[in-house]
Amino acid sequence: SPLPFMATKSAQIDSTVEIVTPENIAFHYQVAGPFRRLPAFILDLLIRSGVFTLFMIILGLAGALTNLSGIMGAGMMIVWFLLDWFYGGIFETWMNGQTPGKWVLGIRVLSVDGQPINGIQAIMRNILRTLDMMPVGTCMLGLVAMTLNQRFQRIGDIVCGTNVVVEERKWLTGVAKMDDARVAQLANYIPADYRVSRTLAKTLAAYVDRRRFFSIPRRREVSRHLAEPLLVQFGFPLDTSYDLLLCALYYRTFVADRSDDERITTEINTSPFSPTTPTNVAAQASANPFDIVQPQSGK
Q1: What pTM was estimated for this model as a whole?
Q2: Reduced to 3 states, what is the DSSP secondary structure of residue 220?
């Protein structure tokens, strides 16, 4: 048996966390530890220093030419204050949880519930960075806080309800092709004002990418949890194909705004609410999509 001080397989540190979104979707994210976040911090520090140096040169020349060096000196202090306290907050608000440094390193700030952070969270977590860096320049408080929780949250993250995760960029590398004409038709019935959240878009992309490996009963089982509340929200018949609904929502989100030559051909006027099993398309050409629904088989 292993010695007490030897790490076993079950005792390994897990660097992933499960985040359950308001849509009741569970994601596993790899959290970004201090060694992943440090290069991003250094890169952002270099950017801030470069911007400050540029302003210092401009204000210095302006002060020399106008004999207002005292006022220009105060201007430099204001510029440094704004860069030091609000650079991170403004960028994380504008870039949805990322600064230029975080973007380069592939990490992002999220709320602990998986939602994008808001402006208050972005500003406050960056203001509280001063506390994390105490004693001045050592970052000891922040490092100690990060070692005491699974999410590697510094004090600013704990207070603001945020964490830093490794960004998964591969889920939007391509758009899946939809060969079923009913997908595009059903997408037209989805309310125009419905907005898909980032987490839901990620879920749709993952589902559509993997559904080809599922049998029809398995697709129904996997898609049911997410599709049922959407059917109620959209006012669709409750026995509409769950798989077809998710494909239609994927189409509306990722495909519908593309150029016409990339869209699915929709001249065949088939019912998007018809069964997913092969049918005589011509016989359904004039059917109202809300008259034909998926049979209740398999329930």
Answers
A1: 0.59
A2: helix
Q: Which residues contact 107 (CB under 8 A, 6 or more apart)?
A: 32, 36, 37, 40, 98, 164, 165, 166, 167
| Nearest partner of 19 among 11, 37, 31, 10, judged by Cα | 31
- What share of the chain in percent tops pLDDT 70? 74
Q: What is the DSSP letter of 240?
A: S
Q: Output the CA angle 246-250-253, nearest 5 degrees.
A: 140
End-to-end CA distance of the chain: 49
**pLDDT by residue (tens digit) across 250-285?**
999 888 755 444 444 433 344 455 444 433 333 343
What digits encode the pLDDT tens for the residues 190-246?
A: 998 898 887 788 888 888 888 888 888 888 988 998 999 999 999 999 989 999 999
In what helix (H) or strand (E) does residue 131 lie, and over which residues does it extend?
A: helix 129-132
Q: Which residue has the tokens 């593309």?
A: 258
Torsion angles phi and psi, residue 226, rounded to 5 = -85, -35
Q: What share of the chain is helix, strand, coil (3-state, %, to 5)?
A: 55, 5, 40
